[in-house]
């Protein structure tokens, strides 16, 4: 690469560090030579590269900070032994953790620390459903559990009691399990055999869902809680019992 920093007519000496950087970039990243054909374009390119690196480093530190704040929240949630106690968690009820509307329709957002402290909404989970015979000593009806995979979109967050930032609630997931099972081939087979009263298969009385810590989430009070407050994270595998009577 031509040394654009040597100017023999003016007998000026090149700035050694700048020249070293330019030569290094020109040799290892050849396409950058298109932007370093004179002193001005070279220095603009170096400035943009420097600002880009600073932005990446800043984003990296923000991501690390967000990760540790979020993980500390999950650790706190997982220490709760009675799931109903989570209904009073400050992250669900304290206005400082949410944006609020101020004058002229503008919004005042939460602080960066409060934003990162909030648990991340659950975007997808897998649920393994065992079909249980509720009429005969709660024995399995089939050998292998049914596997349902659910991905949640903003439409799934619309009817939540709490902030949509937290994603869908427990009842919404149970409702999805209910409909997936009702649409399955095994349901049609059971319906044809007429061994169980499938008309009494309901969300509240027939679906028993466990979080990753094997805690049963069967309380009506928990149905409005977002999944991320029930010790559930994106990608988790949940166990479920579908009891037929």
Outline the structure in words.
The chain crosses the membrane at residues 44-69. Keywords: Membrane, Transmembrane, Transmembrane helix. With 245 residues, the protein is an alpha+beta fold. The protein has a domain at 124-244: Phosphatidylinositol 3-kinase Catalytic Subunit, Chain A, domain 1 (Ubiquitin-like (UB roll)), CATH 3.10.20.90. The protein has 7 helices and 7 strands; from the N terminus they run αααββαβββαααββ. It has helices at 16-28, 39-78, 90-93, 112-117, 170-182, 185-193, 203-206, and strands spanning 100-101, 107-108, 124-133, 139-140, 146-151, 207-210, 237-244. β1 (100-101) and β2 form a beta hairpin. The radius of gyration is 29 Å and the shape is elongated. It starts with 15 loop residues before the first helix and ends with a strand.
Short description:
With 245 residues, the protein is an alpha+beta fold. Helices cover 36% and strands 14% of the residues.
* Name of the CATH class of the domain at 124-244: Alpha Beta
Largest sheet: 5 strands, mixed
Give the ordered list of helices and strands.
HHHEEHEEEHHHEE
CATH architecture of the domain at 124-244: Roll
> What does the radius of gyration come to?
29 Å
How far apart are the first and last residues' alpha carbons, in Å? 81 Å
Strand % is 5-15%
**Could you state the CATH homologous superfamily of the domain at 124-244?**
Phosphatidylinositol 3-kinase Catalytic Subunit, Chain A, domain 1
């Amino acid at each position: 690469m031509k040394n654009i920093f040597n100017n023999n007519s003016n007998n000026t000496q090149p700035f050694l560090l700048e020249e070293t950087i330019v030569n290094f970039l020109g040799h290892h990243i050849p396409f950058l030579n298109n932007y370093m054909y004179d002193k001005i374009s070279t220095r603009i390119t170096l400035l943009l590269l420097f600002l880009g690196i600073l932005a990446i480093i800043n984003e990296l530190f923000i991501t690390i900070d967000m990760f540790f704040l979020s993980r500390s929240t999950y650790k706190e949630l997982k220490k709760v032994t009675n799931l109903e106690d989570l209904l009073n968690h400050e992250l669900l009820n304290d206005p400082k953790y949410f944006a609020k509307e101020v004058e002229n329709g503008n919004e005042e957002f939460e602080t960066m620390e409060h934003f990162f402290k909030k648990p991340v909404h659950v975007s997808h989970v897998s649920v393994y459903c065992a079909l249980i015979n509720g009429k005969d000593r709660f024995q399995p009806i089939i050998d292998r559990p049914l596997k349902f995979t659910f991905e949640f979109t903003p439409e799934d967050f619309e009817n939540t009691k709490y902030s949509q930032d937290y994603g869908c609630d427990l009842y919404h997931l149970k409702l999805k399990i209910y409909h997936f099972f009702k649409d399955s081939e095994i349901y049609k087979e059971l319906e044809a055999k007429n061994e169980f009263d499938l008309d009494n298969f309901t969300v509240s009385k027939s679906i028993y869902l466990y979080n990753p810590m094997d805690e049963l989430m069967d309380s009506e009070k928990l149905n409005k809680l977002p999944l991320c407050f029930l010790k559930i994270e994106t990608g988790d595998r949940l166990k479920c019992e579908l009891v037929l009577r």
